[in-house]
Specification:
This protein is mostly helical and 87 residues long. The chain has helices at 2-6, 14-60, 63-66, 71-79, 83-86. The chain is rod-shaped, with a radius of gyration of 30 Å. The termini are far apart.
Length: 87
């Protein structure tokens, strides 16, 4: 690309001028694709991390999500305790 810029003024090197145009177009496309992939990757990783943290919180204690009546049974199932003792 830099060689094409320097030789742009010469009449005998018109091919390098076209090479500069092609290089600019390709770099713009690749830059856009790289930013889009980075945005998708970042969004996916944030959502994945939040989902894992939320499932860890939910499986540790179900009371805030299920209420006072159902939570002891769900907690007993996930903590390997007897349902008769929990209820």
């Amino acid at each position: 690309g830099f060689i094409g810029i320097l030789s742009n003024k010469s009449h005998r090197c018109k091919n390098l001028y076209h090479l500069t145009k092609i290089t600019g177009i390709i770099s713009a496309l690749l830059g856009t694709i790289a930013f889009l992939l980075a945005a998708v990757s970042l969004s996916t990783s944030v959502l994945w991390h939040d989902a894992c943290e939320m499932s860890k919180i939910v499986t540790s204690d179900f009371e805030p999500f299920l209420g006072d009546k159902i939570a002891p049974g769900a907690n007993a199932c996930f903590n390997d305790t007897n349902l008769a003792v929990a209820l």
